[in-house]
Specification:
The protein contains three helices and four strands, in the order ααββββα. By secondary structure, the protein is an alpha+beta fold.
Length: 110
């Protein structure tokens, strides 16, 4: 396979899965959710731990479920990741409405 073909395959894959373009997240093993949040902050990779929305609604249930976000408006790349008792799930988006919908799916209902 030539480099051009390989490059095109990588481009096609990332276009289909924007999560592949997002920076990596720290390994969650070896601690609890609070330890992982500290690792996310220390990594300074663009991911941010969020506890809630501007309107006061909470996201996740610390320290068991933690929501982190990534926003690069210039690149049109957004991410929502969750830490759930040591398991990480990452979703990437190129459309802001899809990102907001994913983020809102983590609102804790009273």
């Amino acid at each position: 396979m030539s480099n051009a073909t390989t490059d095109q395959a990588i481009t096609d894959q990332t276009a289909a899965d924007p999560a592949a373009l997002l920076p990596g997240l720290p390994d969650p093993t070896g601690g609890d959710g609070y330890d992982w949040m500290e690792l996310v902050d220390e990594a300074n990779s663009g991911w941010r731990v969020v506890s809630g929305l501007k309107d006061g609604r909470l996201l996740g249930e610390w320290p068991y479920v933690i929501v982190v976000i990534y926003r690069d408006k210039e690149q049109g790349l957004y991410g929502v990741a969750t830490y759930t008792e040591g398991d990480i799930e990452v979703s990437g988006f190129t459309e802001r409405p899809a990102y907001v919908k994913a983020l809102l799916s983590h609102v804790v209902e009273d």
